[in-house]
Amino acid sequence: MDPPSAWILLVERCIWSVYTSKIISSDRDLLGVVFYGTEKNKNCADFKHVYVLQELGNPGAKRVLELDQYKGDKGQILFRDTFGHNADYSLGEALWACSNLFSDVRVRLSHKRIMLFTNEDDPHANDSAKAKLARTRASDLRDTGIILDLMHLKKPGGFDISLFYRDIVNIAEDEDLGIQPEQSEKLEHLMKKVRAKETKKRTLARLNLYLNKDLSLSVGVYNLLRKAYKPYPVKLYRETNELVKIKTRMFNAKTGSLLLPSDTKRAQTYGNRQIVLEKEETEELRRFGSPGLYLIGFKPLSMLKQHHHIRPSQFIYPEESLINGSTTLFNALLMKCLEREMMVLCRYTARQNIPPRFVALIPQEEEVDEQKVQIAPPGFHIIFLPYADDKRKVDFTEKVPASQEQVDKMKEIVQKLRFRYRIDSFENPVLQQHFRNLEALALDMLEPEQAEDLTMPKVEEMDRRLGNLVEEFKELVYPPDYNPRGKAVKQNEASDGPAKKRLKVEISKDELRSHVQNGTLGKFTVSVLKDACKLYGLKGGGKKQELMDALTEYFSEH
Fold first, then answer.
1. If pLDDT is split at 50, 70 and 90, which confidence band does 525 have?
2. What are phi and psi of 266, to 5 degrees?
3. Do residues 31 and 39 touch, judged by C-beta distance below 8 A?
4. What is the model's pTM?
């Protein structure tokens, strides 16, 4: 990379950010750092002006601290003293050195990627031999499955990809050829490009979409959203810090002898009777047919309501790897559904031992921005539909009509507090603080950086926007002597005698008796069973099975 040092500093900060994020999100990934265009050289093939700072390895605190020493003004001086600069480099040899790093890795890699940071759009303009070698090495990388991405930086006069790098860069199969991203000038823009490339798009499953007995196509299922959790803590042996392995063994309660898996069986209580099942039978109970999407029919999109949402959707895209011609058939189905505004109803079984779900496939048209770069792919969203058991009966309070004046005033308040919501603008403050604490411990920082809680409402800004609207609304809605901060009068204090707590038993005695006889008490929740036990003066304990046993014994005697 050519000077100025500001661009080198930008790339170093980007590499540092990638390392620290990988430690948290993907600590098993292998990362390396190679500089080319240096005065000094360090690589296994002894190429000139190519310096391998870090070979491929897992990201860790030691590597991050090594990069830390090149930050700031003192770091820039150290960088120049350690590596120097020489423009007489060969990009082909630099790519060869990177390829050798992958060759030395003994584990199988899911994907291999080289990110090339540069602000020189024609590095070998005056040397056709070096330019030819670079193109040859880039072709070799393509043949060995190594992806080469260009992370070009801003330069005076603009960065012209067509001069050299259009023939060099090769992209992954799951990415668009399209127009190359714009040149980067700021760290945020550069990090955005890097993060878009560093994670390979992985399918959740590859399934067949069966349109009928004789016609099917293959699709890949993708998760669009996944809840982020804190990483699970691991147990270590306190004397050696070695990972502790947990083993579970079963013993006979009476004799204390060790039980083998073949010595145990499983049982389910049904109607006060224990049903014993073999291991093969329990496994067979979990199977609900082979995985796949099975067409049921079509319905207008207007029939799908917002209250049908019960979990994040998934996304399907055609896969040619299983059935040839799937893309053509998929596109035909997508275009017809978009044209007629229809959704596809299917029976969806994701894997072998997962119960089936009814889903609606919602068509999505491809969207591109002003530069004709895709921002939304064509395909179907898998919307999980609720079962009858998922719907709840909610007791609504009696509707109190509001006057038109009150409605208009509330409209003003809502209008003043409206803002453009973007999901990527809000990070989980608990997770962010947890990761900052880990980072501080790993890098021996004096204290962790405090994460900003962006979920907290901006009270001062809200008050400034609203002005006197809130007070005007209170005057319209509440009586003059109303004090919202005053304590409410409890019901039992206002009444003459102590109020008795009513038990919420929604089923009659005959219904309970019927459920006991049919062995279907398990349909009820623990709270309902507890209330039933209290109603008949039974002591059933806190577990569901104990409550069911108490009710079963009561109705067998009465």
1. confident
2. -115, 150
3. no
4. 0.60
